[in-house]
Amino acid sequence: MRINKYLALCGVASRRECDKLIAEGRVEVNGKIAELGCEIGGEDVVKVDGREVKAKKNEYYILNKPKGYICSVKDEKGRKTVLDLMPENVGRIYPVGRLDYDSEGLLILTTDGELAQHLTHPSNEVPKTYLVKIEGTITEAGLNPIRSGIDIGGYVTKKCKAHIVETNKEYTKIHVTITEGKNREIRKMFEAIGKNVTLLKRIKIGELTLRGLDRGSYRKLTQQEIAYLMML
Predict the structure, then answer these.
(1) How many CB atoms lie within 10 A of CB 40?
(2) How far is Cα 72 from Cα 78, in angstroms, rounded to an integer?
């Protein structure tokens, strides 16, 4: 097994980040500085920054994140994090990407740095669908600036999909599918057309949904779902 893959299986980081650690001379194999591309066997002793690391079986969870939690391992301000919703013995698990404090919905948590990198790297353009609720009304034509890409303060968003799913005089609900993940991107997109977002919920990553999961609930991903996410 190539050393970058082995380190990723140990939960050190993604393969790309592990390559950087190797290039910086921070990885040893049997007491010698490792080289990029070297192969690892079952008897080899691998250390990162002087600490031995061992491959372990990765963990994969899907969580229906409620509002009022941040997507972080810990918070300096003492706010609740998504790990507070997970079992205590879950280990060194990390949220993949972000849903801001006031947003909710589908979140992947895993020890697999390679999958995390795959799902979040902009070049992979993994589609993520959100339910957006705004104050007041809007027409399908009014969504065109968002579909075609809109300036959200020095950055023009990529083209995306958007369509109305419910509307009345007080609010409109819209499904929006984006392939990037800038900070508060969807909220800023609607602000740019003069609309205030009152609810933002991620409902799908690719075709993976929250079906059967209540707010604050989680479950392990199936092997089929893990393989599907890696193929997105």
Answers:
(1) 20
(2) 11
- Thinking of the domain 60-122+208-231, which architecture would CATH place it in? 2-Layer Sandwich (3.30)
Spatial separation of the C-alpha atoms in residues 19 and 13, rounded to whole Å: 9
- Provide the residue count of the chain: 232
Encoding tokens for residue 141?
A: 């034509």
Distance CA 35, CA 176 (A): 45
Select which of 100, 102, 112, 214 is catalytic.
100
Q: Is 100 labeled as catalytic in the residue annotation?
A: yes
In CATH terms, is domain 127-205 a member of 3.30.70.1560? yes
Residues 5, 58: Cα–Cα separation, whole Å: 13
Asked whether residue 11 carries a pLDDT value surpassing 80, the answer given is: no
Q: How far apart are CA 204 and CA 83, in angstroms?
A: 21
- Exposed/middle/buried for residue 66 (C-beta within 10 Å: 0-12, 13-18, 19+): middle
Q: Would you state the CATH architecture of domain 3-52?
A: Roll (3.10)
Q: Does this chain's domain 3-52 share its CATH topology with 127-205?
A: no
pTM check: above 0.70:
yes
Tell me the two tokens of residue 87: 């079992």
Distance CA 16, CA 137 (A): 45
Strands 104-110 and 197-205: parallel
Per-residue pLDDT tens over the stretch 74-83: 888 889 999 9
